[in-house]
Amino acid sequence: KQEVTQIPAALSVPEGENLVLNCSFTDSAIYNLQWFRQDPGKGLTSLLLIQSSQREQTSGRLNASLDKSSGRSTLYIAASQPGDSATYLCAVISSGSARQLTFGSGTQLTVLP
Amino acid sequence: EAGVAQSPRYKIIEKRQSVAFWCNPISGHATLYWYQQILGQGPKLLIQFQNNGVVDDSQLPKDRFSAERLKGVDSTLKIQPAKLEDSAVYLCASSIIPGTGELFFGEGSRLTVL
Q1: Which of A78-82, A93-97, B77-81 has the lowest mean pLDDT?
Q2: Record: contact B105-A44, CB cut-off 8 A
């Protein structure tokens, strides 16, 4: 059974810092990995999707990397802003026929002005 | 393009009562998911539909939870009778085809069971 872990559970940084969020998964047989953002009381917004054959994806100030063999992914946020404050969730899609999405518990990020 | 619609946004009930949540996915999306998100945790898949057929309901507590997707469009999730531990946000998501990762989520229905 796939398990996804995110460390740290919470992070507080001053504005302008570069930061890294970590995600690890137990079963390397994944189809892809996705990072989501969740604002309080809201649903999930997809940020980046990395296919299993890819090493990284970039979107603006966000860069996500994937090391399937070690079961790890990182989300790098450059020049953080108060508007980046949210919970960031990592999810993996298994390679099975159902392509089930398994989520981590998230990292709650606070960027202080 | 309209997003995934869910209702009600909030619901407070007493234990042993019943509740139903409704989801309207993005037009043309064949796959629909219901997730349960308990405070401080990541979403947990309850059930996945492909059109109006169930693909995966292995984590759905079938003694109290039921879901249907008639005509392969809208879906309802029902809880009867509710327990205190059912307090959570119920998220609906849809995608054009399974496994692409392009999931689109609704804003969720927050359930409080007293």
Answers
A1: A93-97
A2: yes
